[in-house]
Design brief:
This protein is of the alpha/beta class. It has two domains: 140 residues, Response regulator (Rossmann fold); 258 residues, TIM Barrel. It is built from 16 helices and 16 strands. Helix 2 runs parallel beside helix 3 and helix 8 runs parallel beside helix 9. The radius of gyration is 22 Å and the shape is globular. 39% of the residues are buried. It binds ligand C2E and calcium ion (2 copies).
Length: 420
Amino acid sequence: MNDISRIPVTHNADSLLIVDDSVVQRQHAVALSRALGVGLIYEAGNGLEALELLAMLVLPPTVIVVDLEMPGMDGIEFLQQLHNRNLGASVIVVSGREQALIESVETMGRMLGINMLAGLQKPLTAAALGSALAQRTAWHDAVAGGGSDVIQVNHDELSQAIGNHQISVHYQPKVDVRTGFVRGVEALARWEHPQHGRIPPGLFIAVAEREGLIHPLTMSVMGQALRQAAKWNASGLRLSVAINLSARLLELPDLVRRIVGQIEAHALSPEQVVLEITESWVVGSLGTALGMLGRLRLLGCGLSIDDYGTGFSSMQQLARIPFTELKVDRSFIIGASRKRNLRVILQSALDMAQRLGLVSVAEGVETEEDWRLLKECGCAVAQGYMIGRPMPAGDMPKWMKEHHQRLPKLRAGGHRTILF
Ligand code: C2E
Ligand code: CA
Ligand code: CA
């Protein structure tokens, strides 16, 4: 139980690895990177060479710029290998091939959990590379919030953190795309670590799942979130609260009883509680999950398919589970206004939600273009940085006030026919 997981948290783009078999292209990329002020630049001629180099480096690169077509090991296989090694570097794909192929590799990388900064067509320009590297800074600020090299999380430390109430909850608004009104919030766990500062859930949820701590952690999050919902109710603000339910929890025999207990303790109506369950898992353990999900739905709780599009559920499987909401994964939203392939997938997911009678939710709405596109595609609910970042409950009143002021702008436009 005490094995330590080493989870890398990377710095801003201060070092690069350029992987390209063409010496000329490599030199060009090196020159541009220097001009952009990157201090440390490594080079490799193909994926294999790059992996060997990465295994040796004391100071690994924070960003990897990789070509797709290379002898030995191509860019796609390299990304898959990179994912297996969990190095934490961000990636920019650069290729002379068509945009659709580059985009699909970008999507693949994102699904593997790699921070994909951009997919760029050759010839590489300083402007394109510069803006891709700037993305990394934004991502780093959002994810790591500053940063130590490696955060080590073990069972005892996480267990104590849960017991000592170091796990707090932030709330991210979910708003109606047509009216702009707030429909609810998603509760997201945050670890306020005395030494490392705020640790995002991407760094400790997996440890909690592996170390048998996901149950106490979820109950702590649910307890805080439902208490908050009751407070909001008392002040006249009725919001639904979404809780992330880990796959493993659906195997616990007393889960439904525990959830009901919490709902009753805070005198909430079950309709106010939404349980978000990741799509990939639902497929794996459909049999055992059905009873649990059915009982939660019978009680009146909302059930949401989270990260839709990253797993492999068929329409038939989805129809069998009493879901009420479908959340399209953010990898299909971010950049969808510019990328035709993503738009096609997004539209088909929204159409399917409608046919199954599910409320469609888009997460990862970062720009006004994303918002407009969702309006045009007929998405019901949206969530993302452009609307509101996850925040402590205390910041909600100020956010609500500001949000109210921009409602007319959010409501304007939309319902245009989209040309794919
Ligand atoms: P998720 O359920 O998909 O939650 C949405 C994540 O997207 C949150 O990351 C949120 O901060 C982020 N996000 C929101 N808007 C945007 C946007 O516009 N752009 C981008 N790029 N990202 C956006 P967060 O808070 O880091 O959580 C990561 C994941 O950790 C969650 O993904 C969820 O799967 C898991 N998680 C968080 N809290 C809990 C929990 O209490 N229990 C369990 N089992 N998992 C949790
Ligand atoms: Ca979620
Ligand atoms: Ca999600």
